[in-house]
Each structure stands twice: as C-alpha cells, then as structure tokens.
Design a protein that fits this description.
Blueprint (H helix, E strand, L loop, with lengths): L12 H25 L1 H8 L7 H24 L8 H4 L4 H25 L9 H29 L14
Helix pairs in contact: 1-3, 1-6, 3-5, 5-6
Length: about 170
C-alpha cells in the first residue's frame, strides 16, 4: 500500500460534542431573530397568515426546549478534572438532547416533505432548509449517540471495547 503522506486527524469525540452543543446554542436564538426580522416577507412568500404571532410563539417555545437540551448536552459531556470519573456519571445528561433532537429530525424531514408537496414553483426551495437541517442533526445525533455509548462503556469498566473509538482512526 502506498502512502502519500496524508494523515487525517480528528478532534476528540468530547471536543466535537461540546462544539456541537455550543454551536447549536448560538444557532437557536439566531433562528428566532431571523424569523422575527423577516416575518412579513416570509408570510407573504409562503402565503399564510396567523394572528398574534402564533408562528413566532411556536418557534420560540421549540427553540427554548432545544436550548435547554443543548445546555444538558454541554453539562453531560464536560470533562471532569478531579479524576473521580464524574464526567462518566454525568453522561446521562446527554439523553434529553438525544430525545429532543430525535423528535426534531422527524419534524424537520416531515416539514421538508410537506413543503415539497404543498409549495409551488420557486417556493419549493424553502423545503430544502428543513431537509438540510434535519440531515445535519441526523449526523450529529449519531455522533452524540456514539459518545454516549462510549462513555457508558467506560463507566462499566469493560476492558474490551465493543466499538472502535473514533479518536483512534487515522
């Protein structure tokens, strides 16, 4: 086998999950701000009307639940430097994120499919936004699930790993 000097380096699994949590924590309020700023244009293009900003209220409540689950994710994968393995015991805090974003994946794909069916013309392109978001969250969901499984396996003290660690792949 010929090697051309390429060496692929991944970040640590914990660092990637923490980065994901902080990135989504910034993305959620930005979504509300963008929706609020372009609300009238979005309603005009998509052709719907609601009274009393019902769409903003629904989006704000979804984003609030997502932000709380992101905080749980950050707390669950934060490193414990006291050498008492408290970070392994806190990995259960990742479960709310896995549940909430699992529901978000289903809703995003459903919204994208419904958008492709009901929207006409160039407005069908708006259906790509929830599909792209759902795909990103699906990949992230697998990443966080792998982190959760690895942490639970380390807590159990099993000497042989049932799954290959991502950080050892080069």
């Amino acid at each position: 086998m010929v090697s051309f000097g390429c060496h692929i380096v991944f970040c640590r699994l914990r660092t990637g999950v923490l980065t994901l949590g902080f990135m989504l924590l910034i993305f959620e309020p930005a979504t509300i701000i963008l929706m609020w700023y372009f609300l009238l244009e979005l309603r005009k293009v998509l052709g719907y009307t609601l009274v009393f900003y019902t769409d903003i209220n629904i989006l704000a409540s979804i984003c609030l639940v997502n932000m709380i689950s992101n905080i749980f994710l950050i707390c669950g994968c934060n490193k414990d430097y006291s050498r008492r393995n408290l970070d392994l015991r806190r990995c259960w805090f990742c479960l709310p994120w896995l549940i909430v974003y699992g529901i978000n994946i289903i809703l995003a794909f459903g919204l994208g499919i419904v958008g492709f069916i009901h929207l006409d013309g160039h407005t069908r392109a708006f259906s790509l936004v929830p599909l792209a978001y759902g795909t990103f969250i699906l990949v992230s969901h697998v990443y966080v699930l792998y982190f959760f499984i690895e942490q639970k396996q380390k807590l159990s003290g099993v000497a042989i790993r049932p799954v290959l660690s991502i950080s050892t792949i080069t």
